[in-house]
Amino acid sequence: MSDSTRGTYLGDEMSFAPFPNPSPDWSQDDPSHPGFVLNGLDETPGQKAYYIHLEAKPGKEELLQGFLQDINAGVDKEPLTGPWFALRYSKTTFCIFEAFPDAQARHTHDHGPGGQNFLRSELLHDMLAYPAQLYRLDVLHGKFGVMLGQPVKPA
User: pLDDT band at residue 72, thresholds of 50, 70 and 90?
Assistant: First the structure.
């Protein structure tokens, strides 16, 4: 893959194509859940996931990394949430991928110790360039017997 298919250099910075439906500013901020925008279907049957796109304001990257650690600490207390990953795509672009056995487990997470971090709207406004983009996903299939190169042992 060439650099031109991954991004465009702008001086010392790399510009990446946004994920679908990003809000380039705070105009889509919804008073019913300030700080994030929900995308995708919710109540289809089967295994579920979230992909969450977070764009830090320049200089707020470490604050966002701390926020991700707070979420991870909460998710560790949620038996139906997992796998869960905090990811970094570029200097200011971060992501979360998390999976659930079904929509009810995803709803439980939304109101649990991990998901409740997204109610910290003042912090979200302070550290994010635009509202977090939460994408509801259906898990179609996957490789579940190995995690980061190690066999997964049944509980």
Answer: very high
Q: Alpha helix locations (H) across the chain?
A: 3-6, 61-75, 103-110, 121-127
- Pairing between β-strand 48-55 and β-strand 8-10 as defined by DSSP bridges: unpaired
**What's the rounded Cα separation, in Å, for the pair 16 and 6?**
7
**Tokens 């009810």 found at:** 104
Residue 19: DSSP 8-state: P
- Determine if residue 146 is left, alpha or beta; phi over 0 gives left, psi from -120 to 50 gives alpha, anything else beta: beta
CATH topology classification for 32-137: Alpha-Beta Plaits (3.30.70)
Does the bond joining 83 to the residue before it have cis omega, within 30 degrees of 0?
Answer: yes
* Domain extent listing, the chain: 32-137
Contacts (Cβ under 8 Å, ≥6 apart) of 134? 36, 37, 38, 39, 50, 51, 52, 118
pTM of the model: 0.82
